Amino acid sequence: MKRTVAASWLLSGAGRAATANQAIAIGDGRIENVTAGEGKGSLVMPALGNAHDHARIARLSQVGSYDVPLEAWLPYLTLLPTVDPYLSSAVSFARSARGGVGAVMAHYTRVQGLTDFPTEARAVAKAARDVGIRMALAVHCRDLNPLVYDPHEKLLAELSPAACECVTRRFLRKPVPAAEQVAMVEAVARDIEGGGVTVQYGPAGVQWCTDEMLRLIGKASAASNRRVHMHLLETKYQRNWADRTFPQGIVRYLDDIGLLNERVSFAHCIYLRPDEMDLIAERGATIVVNTSSNFIVSSGLAPLGEFIKHGCRVAMGLDGLAMDEDEDALREMRLAYNVHKASGFDIRVSQADLMRFATTNGRFAVTGMKDEVLAPGAPADLLTLDWEALSAELIEPNVPPFDLVLAKGVKQHVVDLIVAGRDVVRSGKVVGVDLPALETELLAVLRAKYPTTADVRAAMPELKSALRKHYTGPLYCA
Ligand SMILES: [Zn+2]
């Protein structure tokens, strides 16, 4: 289908000056040409990328898990009842789209489990196609350390019999053998890839996977060229564990087993050391920074400026934990910029860095596409913002348009989101699914089924304090 998008201002990509009154011709999902045209009150920029997310179904405050550090927060996710995976994924992807995101990494750490996994994966893929965003399903692989990063027998002994029974039943199931988990990824990929959907290996993180599993994934990824997405060094406790476990260094270890290359993206990396940044930069892996999430679950602050200084490719992630629990990727972009941009006159993250970080580098992590600019031949992934609203209060007429987006752009300014030439959001509404109706349905299901997790709710205070004791105890004091 051929069409033309009008731009009062076009921000075509990193390091490019804004151009006024442009017409962007689109055909077959790509940009055909960009010529002088008429404005029609819109600012057009590349669609935003969300390179780390989990297709999560609820916000923290909905289940009382706001203000809990990561290691204690993860078990709280079990409070959420299982729901239909199409419903949960469609809500998550549609919210992402409404927030300006055209490409999302669904690191699928929460399997609903109402059916076998291939059936569930098909439902997730259908949700992404119905919404119309590009989606990578990073299939969760995990077979180690189900409760803490260490043996959990001592922690279990701290719990009352009732809490211990619940925790054992809910968290300590025998994992599926590594080879089976890894083989499943290729099978799912053969089944669901296409139409904007791709599949990646999604090992949970080094502390959650056996050496056997990680090596299998390194090998399989090299053989198939399939991309890999995983958590890395999100908290100081993970750093502590990694240093105890890998005397050669955790990043060296990943390099040794084939998991440090251009196909790989790492979420968080808050506790990386400078030499590890150098190695990541050299190998061309991507670091995904999740500023809001890191604040909310008290993990720390990723040194985004340092990553860039060391030459690392960096991308933005929302991790299902946007600052205002609203999946607003424009606000996330502003937060990341304001937190990291400069110290006085020393610029650490330039606007060009930031543009790449928030848009095309995320799409690269999700899809492997390398285009950085809205130019002929590039994928037609465009975000249109309401320029009239953004500029309504201007006094000086020549304020750079990207300054305005960074200063005040929020999802309420999103007019249209076009992905591969197709309307995903039109006039502020998600086109492919009825988001408000799905949200109402999801909330009703979650409330109705909430009693099914009453056992976890009862055990949680004890588990939380045992986890606190574990991570503030002798193992982690050194
Ligand atoms: Zn995450």
Automatic annotation (TrEMBL):
The keyword Transmembrane does not apply. GO terms for molecular function: hydrolase activity, acting on carbon-nitrogen (but not peptide) bonds. Pfam families: Amidohydro_1 (PF01979). Residues 43-393 form the Amidohydrolase-related domain. The keyword NAD does not apply. InterPro entries: Amidohydro-rel, Metal-dep_hydrolase_composite, Metal_Hydrolase, MTA/SAH_deaminase. Gene3D superfamilies: Metal-dependent hydrolases. It comes from the Bacteria. Keywords: Hydrolase. Belongs to the metallo-dependent hydrolases superfamily. ATZ/TRZ family. This is Hydrolase.
